[in-house]
Design a protein that fits this description.
Bound molecules: S-adenosyl-L-homocysteine, iron/sulfur cluster
Helix content: 25-40%
Largest sheet: 9 strands, mixed
CATH architecture of the largest domain: Alpha-Beta Barrel
Shape: elongated
Distance between the termini: 34 Å
Number of domains: 2
Length: 395
């Protein structure tokens, strides 16, 4: 990556454009923007608040995609809405289900781009891992997503759309008479740990997460949403203030020398700068603990000395340390630390009073584990034209 990482990035975000029939997508609009869109479409000012509340509930509480199903709105108005607006979510290109129940979705968004979202069922929760960008501009040397050249920011609609598509697939929109908010949900948690650096697409991520948290809609508590950043320090305080979700940080090293190599954004905001921003986070957002993600790379960052340095560095920060066995990808320049090494590392961290769960790789058989997202979409991209050209002679 460039040594000078910008604070925010002016990547192309597809502007809110009407579709070929001139209709604007309502998915991803904040409540305020939804009201404005309705007013522009000629809904009388006095009705805007009520109508946007009704439409919001149909879209985000009931999962309705067709205005004709919005039965508390007059037929004439429904027809007018359908002329002006649409309710569009990303399209599922492929869905793979792992032996362990993990589901990986390859989704197509505007411009023909593809992103991945992964649903991970566990005993006490179901977590959807979503993407915030197509690709990533930060080239962390152990991450497959970072090797993808093409990058574009996702819109808020494309971000919350991943949650809506997963709920469709899980059959989890409440039926008439179901309790609200629902209990024992299949999709109970969201992690922004898919493709992209969420804090380089801050506004869209914020608006999408506000929709996810809204009590009259998808209604996932801010404590069940975790945003993972590689360490975009200037945006950390805003994350606390404007989103207030849980924070995870891709820490991965205990010296600047090693972190510069693994997470090159460290050259811009080093360990000390990052840690001082993190010290303020729980106070500002009322969140409990910050998760320190630490990928275990054989012979690179996994020594006992590293473990001891790690606990010393984070002293005073309410934290838990998530050890991630490195997930290999073709051509990766690292190897996964051995099970014994990971356990020895975890023991030191535990003895210092920190919980240090070792993340169990999920969905490995479908390349759905952390840092593996990309290959499948590239393969799929190759496969489709290949299928289309089946009759053509080889080049
Ligand atoms: N860009 C954000 C969020 C996406 S990455 C970030 O970096 O935090 C989600 C997590 O997966 C990060 O902690 C990342 O460092 C980790 N990761 C990336 N590649 C990995 C790999 N090959 N094996 C294990 N973890 C990986
Ligand atoms: Fe981007 Fe995160 Fe991968 Fe680094 S680890 S390249 S920030 S997605």
């Amino acid at each position: 990556m460039k040594a000078e990482a910008p604070i925010t990035q002016d990547l192309v975000t597809i502007p809110r454009k009407p579709d070929e029939n001139g209709r604007c997508n309502l998915v991803g609009l904040t409540r305020e923007a939804l009201g404005e869109a309705l007013a522009e479409a000629g809904i009388p000012e006095k009705q805007v608040r009520m109508r946007s509340g009704q439409i919001w509930q149909w879209i985000y509480q009931k999962g309705v995609r067709d205005f004709s199903e919005m039965t508390n709105i007059s037929k004439e108005l429904r027809a007018r809405l359908a002329e002006k607006f649409e309710i569009r979510v990303p399209e599922i290109v492929t869905r793979q289900v792992s032996r362990d129940g993990t589901r990986k979705y390859l989704l197509r968004i505007a411009g023909g781009h593809e992103v991945e979202a992964v649903y991970i069922p566990e005993e006490d929760r179901g977590t959807l891992c979503i993407s915030s960008q197509v690709g990533c501009t930060l080239n962390c040397s152990f991450c497959h997503t970072g090797t993808q050249k093409l990058v574009r920011n996702l819109t808020a609609g494309e971000i919350i759309g991943q949650v809506m598509v997963a709920r469709d697939d899980l059959g989890e929109w409440p039926k008439v008479g179901d309790p609200f908010p629902p209990e024992g949900r299949l999709l109970s948690n969201i992690v922004l740990m898919g493709m992209g650096e969420p804090l380089y697409n801050f506004e869209n991520v914020r608006d999408a997460m506000k929709i996810a948290m809204d009590g009259e809609g998808i209604s996932i508590s801010r404590r069940r949403i975790t945003l993972s950043t590689s360490g975009v320090v200037p945006m950390i305080a805003r994350t606390a203030e404007e989103i207030g979700c849980m924070l995870a940080v891709s820490f991965h090293a205990t010296t600047d020398e090693v972190r510069d190599r693994l997470v090159p954004i460290n050259r811009k905001w080093n360990i000390e700068t990052l840690l001082s921003a993190l010290r303020e986070y729980p106070k500002a957002s009322n969140s409990e603990r910050i998760t320190f993600e630490y990928v275990m790379l054989k012979g690179v960052n996994d020594s006992d000395e590293d473990a001891r340095r790690l606990v010393k560095l984070i002293r005073g920060i309410p934290a838990k340390i998530n050890l991630i066995p490195f997930n290999e990808w073709p051509g990766a320049p690292y190897e996964r630390s051995s099970g014994n090494r990971i356990r020895a590392f975890a023991d030191i961290v535990n003895a210092a009073g920190y919980s240090s769960p070792v993340r169990k790789p999920r969905g490995e058989d479908i390349m759905a584990a952390c840092g593996q997202l990309k290959s499948a979409s590239e393969k799929a991209r190759k496969r489709r034209p290949a299928i289309a050209n089946e009759a053509a002679p080889p080049a």
